[in-house]
Structures are given as structure tokens and as C-alpha cells.
Amino acid sequence: MPKDTQNTLNLKDARIAGALYLTIAVCGGFSIGYVPSQIVVAGDAATTSANLMGQLGLFRLGVLADSAVILLEIAITVILYQMFRTISPRLALIAMVSRLGMIVVMGINLLLWVMPYVLLTQPMGLDPADSQAFAQIFFEAHALGIYVWQLFFGAHLLALGWVILRSNLVPHLLGWGLFVGAFGYLIQGLVELTFTEVAALDITIIGLLTIVTISELGFGFWLFIRGLRGTANQSKSSPQIA
Length: 242
Hints:
Elements lengths: L2 H37 L5 H10 L1 H29 L4 H33 L6 H38 L6 H22 L5 H27 L17
Helix pairs in contact: 1-3, 1-7, 2-5, 3-4, 4-5, 5-6, 6-7
């Protein structure tokens, strides 16, 4: 493939990936961060159910945003693999498989999120109190499911950050931020799923998640505004590790 064509493809792919990254950040922040905070009340099934039925518009918008995230994640996963596979096929493949695993868990988690609506609106032969209790269980399972897909996402960011450090396509500061910050997702996922409570870990997680959030946004803006530096065939001259 001619060099100028390769550059054009990289620039186009990079800007598409950047746009997808930023769109996912907005949709995900809304569906994962805002919507549950307005509906789910921990330990109070009756209030949670009332919030759900009283804010069906918000609930549906959250489902649409979650669905958009899942579909956009498929596209960005493929694009990132194409962008970095010539730097390290192994790392690029690890990053792709890990992110695809995350997408699968997200799909299951979306099903858990909509089940409370089904329980509260469809005749199931259950008492209202029982329906509300089961709805609360599904919401709690959805919250835990987030920590499950975070494990996959953490693995993805480790591979992505490392392959960025192996290349000259993106500033290495962003690569370090993604690589180091990935441990925030991994540690938080393990801590929450094992129900561990250690104050020092909480502080560490907050710090790492701050780093990775800034790095992810920076990576998205960099791709969208600047694109890649050079071509996908230009990598660091260091010895190949993967």
C-alpha cells in the first residue's frame, strides 16, 4: 500500500476512533453514572421501584445510551486493532479480545438492567412486594456486573497502553496513563467482587481511576484532533517483546 494512502487511512481511522471514544464517554457517563443514581436506592426496594415507574423516560434513555455504548464499542475495538496490529500483533490481539469480552458482559448487564421493568409491569403471579424485591436484586446484580466488565477493560487498557509505549503514534504520556491507570479498574473490580474493605485500597483506586479517566479522555481528544503521528508501520526501534 502506498505510503500516502496508509497515512490517509490512519488519519481517518484515528479520528473515527477519537469520535467514538468521546461519544462512548458521554453515553456511558449518562447510562452508568447518572441514571442509576436517580433510580436505584440501595436497600430500599419499594423506593427503587417507585423511582423506576415514576421516571420511565429517564430509564428508557439509559437503555438507549447503554445500547449505543455496546454497538460503538464493537466498532472502536476493531478500529483500535487495525491501528496497532502492525506495532505488536500479540498485544493488539490481547487488547481486542479483552475489550470484546467486556462487550459481552455489558450485553448481559443490560439485560439485568431491564429485567426490573419486566417484573414490575408484566403479570408474573407475584405479590407487589416480591416483585419489588426481585427487581432490587436485578439492580444490585447490574451494579456488580459493572465490576466484572471492568476486569476485562483493565486488561484491555494494559495491552493498549503497552502497545502505545511500543510505538511513536501517540504521546507516551497517554500510554503510561492508560497502562498505570488500568490497575484502578482491575483493583476496584477485585475489591468490590470480593467485598473487601481496606481504606488504603480505596484511596489508591481513586487515584488510579483519576489517572486513567484523564488519560482516556486525552487519548480520545488526541485521536480526534491530531490523529496519529506517522504511520502504523512506524514503531520504536527497541527490540520486539510481543
